[in-house]
Amino acid sequence: MPDYVPTNAASSGVTLDKKTLKTIAARSDRPGLLWLGQWIVSLMVTGTLVMMSVGTLWMWPAMLLHGVFLTVPAYAASHETAHGTAFRTRWLNESVLWVTSLLYMEEPLHRRFTHTNHHTHTWHVGKDSQMPFDTPMGFGGWLAEATGFALLRFHLTVFVRLAAGRYTETMRMVAPGNELPRMTRNARIMILIYVAVALAPLAGIWWPIWLFLLPRVLGAPVMLLFTLIQHVELQENSPSILESTRSFRTSGLGRFLYMNMNNHVEHHLYPQVPFHALPQLAEAVQDQVPEPDPGFFRTNFEVLIVVLRRSMGLPTKAPSIRQAPHMITDGGRAVRVAHRTM
After folding, report:
1. Which of 10, 82, 208, 225 sits at a 20 to 30 Å CA gap from 315?
2. Angle at alpha carbon of residue 93, lines to 89 and 99, rounded to 5°
3. 2 pLDDT exceeds 70?
4. What is the mean pLDDT of residues 305-318?
C-alpha cells in the first residue's frame, strides 16, 4: 500500500456535489480552439511589431512584449495539455502539448509525468518532483528563479540526460519504463530544432532569433513570476492544498495569458477541471477555500520584500499575502526546510 495520501480536494477537506463537478469538468474542443486562435493572432500581431522594428532600438521592447505573449501562454498551454484537459480530442491535445513544450523548453512526456507527481505530492519534501526552489526562499533563490537561470539549467540538464538515455532516479520513478525511449526520441528531436535555430544566422536567417530565441529569454521572467507565486511562502508537507497552494487575483489579460491558472488552489483541488471552467469552479468552492491573494504585481512585490528581508535577517511577515506560520519570523538566519528538485 502507498505511504502517502494524494493531495487533492479529498485530502484538503473540500467537497463538491458530484453532479456539479461533472458539469464543470466536462471537456470540449471549442474553448481550447478559441483560446488557441486568440493566442496565434496575438503572436502574429506582436511578431509583426518585432519584424517592423528590427534594426531600431524599438525592437527590444517589441521582443519583450512578444516574449511575454510567447512564454506565459506556452507554459500555461503545455501545463493544461499535460493534464489532457485543454481539448477533448486526444490528437489535438497531444499536438499542442508537443509544440508548446518545445516553446517552453521541456520534453513533453517529462513535463506530463513530473507534473502528475507534483499533483500527487504537492509541496512534499523529497516526493514532489517540481519544487523549483529551496524553502524558505532567500533573495539568491528568488533571483535565480525570476531570471530564468535556474529553470534553464534544469531543462538543459534534463534534455542532455534524456538524449543520452542516462535516466535519473526521478525520471524512472515518475515515468513508466516503456515511455523512457519515447522521451529520449523527443529530446533528441527538440535538441536538433534548438540547434537549427541557434545556427540559422550562419545561413543568413535571423527571424528565429528575433521571434523565438531572444523573446524566449526576455519573456521568461514574467512567466516565472506567474509560476513562482503558486506555492512560495506556503506550507510544505501538508495534505491540504489550502495550506500549500496560492490562488491570486489578476487582470483579464493575465487570466488569458495564464489560462486561468491564477485559480491555482482550485486547480490542485480538482485537476480534472479544464482551464476554461476554473472561474466557475472557484465560484462553486469559494466558501471552502482561502480568499485569493492580491493582484499579480502586488503579490510578487510582497514576495520580493519578504525574501530580501529574510536574506538580511529581518522580520519576514508580509503585509497581505498568505504565508505558512514557519515562514514568518522575527529575524535571524532562516532554517532550510527543503532543497529544490528542479
Report:
1. 225
2. 150
3. no
4. 97
Per the listing, cell 532562516 goes with: 334
CB-CB neighbours of 39 under 10 Å = 21
1 — pLDDT class (breaks 50, 70, 90): very low
Q: How many CB atoms lie within 10 A of CB 212?
A: 20
Q: What is the spatial distance between Cα 276 and Cα 267, in angstroms, rounded to a whole number? A: 11
**302/323 Cα distance (integer angstroms):** 11
Cell of 288: 471552502
State pLDDT tens for residues 230-268: 999 999 999 999 999 999 999 999 999 999 999 999 999
Does residue 3 surpass a pLDDT of 90? no
Q: Domain map of the chain by residue range?
A: 28-284
Label each residue of the chain as H, E or C. CCCCCCCCHHHHCCCCCHHHHHHHCCCCHHHHHHHHHHHHHHHHHHHHHHHHHCCCCCHHHHHHHHHHHHHHHHHHHHHHHHHCCCCCCHHHHHHHHHHHHHHHCCCHHHHHHHHHHHHHCCCCCCCCCCCCCCECCCHHHHHHHHHCHHHHHHHHHHHHHHHHCCCCHHHHHHCCHHHHHHHHHHHHHHHHHHHHHHHHHHHCCCHHHHHHHHHHHHHHHHHHHHHHCCCCCCCCCCCCHHHHCCCECCCHHHHHHCCCCCCHHHHHHCCCCCHHHHHHHHHHCCCCCCCCECCHHHHHHHHHHHHHHHHCCCCCCCCCCCCCHHHCCCCCCCCCCECCCC
